[in-house]
Amino acid sequence: MWIWVIVIAVIIGAIWGYFASDGEGGGAAEGAMAGGCMAANCLFRIAIAAIGIIAVLWLFGVLFG
Predict the structure, then answer these.
(1) Is residue 31 a contact partner of residue 16, using CB atoms and an 8 Å limit?
(2) CA dihedral defined by 43, 21, 16, 32, rounded to 10 degrees?
(3) Gap between the Cα atoms of 7 and 2, Å rounded
(4) How far apart are alpha carbons 64 and 48 in whole angstroms?
(5) ∠ CA(27), CA(33), CA(39), 5° rounding?
(6) pTM to 2 decimal places
């Protein structure tokens, strides 16, 4: 499911880059790359935060369980 978030961000970034560069193809590629990298980075940060929360809960269970 998460791959669709990245794909949609790439599509939106490509459209945005195309119109922002006055119809040049290079702008679309740059926008797609920026959108995909941004979405992947956000998903990575969410995953790291979730792993951190799970680790804290596991440690709490080990210490006080």
Answers:
(1) yes
(2) -40
(3) 9
(4) 24
(5) 130
(6) 0.71
